[in-house]
UniProtKB/TrEMBL annotation:
The gene is folD. The lineage of its organism: Bacteria, Pseudomonadati, Bacteroidota, Flavobacteriia, Flavobacteriales. NADP(+) binds at G164, R165, S166, I234. It catalyses: (6R)-5,10-methylene-5,6,7,8-tetrahydrofolate + NADP(+) = (6R)-5,10-methenyltetrahydrofolate + NADPH; (6R)-5,10-methenyltetrahydrofolate + H2O = (6R)-10-formyltetrahydrofolate + H(+). Gene3D superfamilies: Leucine Dehydrogenase, chain A, domain 1, NAD(P)-binding Rossmann-like Domain. GO terms for molecular function: methenyltetrahydrofolate cyclohydrolase activity; methylenetetrahydrofolate dehydrogenase (NADP+) activity. Keywords: Amino-acid biosynthesis, Histidine biosynthesis, Hydrolase, Methionine biosynthesis, Multifunctional enzyme, NADP, One-carbon metabolism, Oxidoreductase, Purine biosynthesis. InterPro entries: Aminoacid_DH-like_N_sf (IPR046346), NAD(P)-bd_dom_sf (IPR036291), THF_DH/CycHdrlase (IPR000672), THF_DH/CycHdrlase_cat_dom (IPR020630), THF_DH/CycHdrlase_CS (IPR020867), THF_DH/CycHdrlase_NAD-bd_dom (IPR020631). It comes from the Bacteria. NCBIfam families: PRK14186.1. SUPFAM superfamilies: Aminoacid dehydrogenase-like, N-terminal domain (SSF53223), NAD(P)-binding Rossmann-fold domains (SSF51735). Residues 138-290 form the Tetrahydrofolate dehydrogenase/cyclohydrolase NAD(P)-binding domain. The keyword S-adenosyl-L-methionine does not apply. This is Bifunctional protein FolD.
Length: 291
């Protein structure tokens, strides 16, 4: 069994980007500038955005955090989005999800300039991804593909079962895994909450990608020997004995499933850090494309 070490690989990617940023500076070029818009004070979102901004600083990017109050109106948020679209200093930006309930998420994401949409959430970018055109691929599916690539996991002709059909993970990773390429060329089943006999499907899978958000959902009796398991779940479970009052767990019962797996991602330290690295990669691409 080999651990797919997202922390290690994400550090490698960040080092590679740091070298490129240094070269940009030496050539007297503008360095990439990422902005993040956060509305409200959701605990997990604060952690993620803080981590994204810190990573920018570490690798030499410029970064701007725009933290708006929970009661921000949709109109004001749209104004902010247009301002970022028109600001030549900003190469790429993200609007952290979820947004407060009174704001129409779709409307906001549609307003983001596709050329600055380093999250890859705009329909133009999602469509290009689905058609295998040059675009911004969303950081989480992009990170999974990069992890499989760097560990040389063989996906060709394999049966991949994706659990979860979200717009930001399940749906795009099911498309990417089926596309031509290495990794890719996989036969994909996209399972979700209405799927019948999920266990029958996962037992046939060479690769299981779980993006469900149910702690320890995937057990060892649901997978075959030699399976590759990608755990995209990140759930906070309340626990008073922990310093933060919670611990983080994935969709996979790691202890039992890892005994049958050939490759497996841990949580934390698997897909999570890869997501941040690929957002930075997309921001670098945005800078290069804006030249
Ligand atoms: N919320 C959960 N994941 C993400 C992400 O990748 N980008 C943004 N903007 N919000 C998220």
């Amino acid at each position: 069994m080999e651990i797919l070490d997202g922390k290690k690989i994400s550090n490698q990617i960040k080092e590679e980007i740091t070298v490129e940023v240094e070269q940009m500076k030496e050539r007297g070029e503008k360095v990439p500038h990422l902005a993040a818009v956060l509305v409200g004070n959701d605990g997990a979102s604060l952690t993620y955005v803080g981590s994204k901004v810190r990573s920018c600083k570490k690798i030499g990017f410029e970064s701007t955090l725009i933290h708006l109050p929970e009661e921000t109106t949709e109109e004001d948020l749209l104004k902010q989005v247009h301002q970022l679209n028109n600001d030549p200093a900003i190469d790429g930006y993200i609007v952290q999800l979820p947004l407060p309930k009174h704001i129409d998420e779709e409307k906001v994401l549609m307003a983001v300039d596709p050329d600055k949409d380093v999250d890859g959430f705009h329909p133009t970018n999602f469509g290009k991804m689905a058609l295998d055109m040059e675009t911004f691929i969303s950081a989480t599916p992009f990170g999974i593909m990069e992890l499989l690539k760097r560990y040389n996991v063989d996906t060709e002709g394999k049966h991949t079962v994706v659990i979860g059909r979200s717009h930001i993970v399940g749906r795009p990773i099911s498309i990417l895994m089926s596309q031509k390429g290495k990794p890719g060329n996989s036969t994909v089943t996209l399972a979700h909450s209405r799927t019948k006999n999920l266990k029958e499907l996962t037992l046939q899978a060479d690769i299981v990608i779980s993006a469900l958000g149910v702690p320890k959902f995937l057990k060892d009796d649901m997978v075959k020997d030699g399976v590759t398991v990608i755990d995209v779940g990140i759930t906070r479970v309340a626990d008073d004995t922990k310093e933060k009052g919670y611990y983080i767990t994935g969709d996979v019962d790691f202890e039992s499933v890892s005994k049958k797996a050939s490759f497996i991602t841990p949580v934390p330290g698997g897909v999570g850090p890869m997501t941040i690295a690929m957002l930075l990669k997309n921001t670098l691409l945005a800078r290069e494309r804006h030249n």
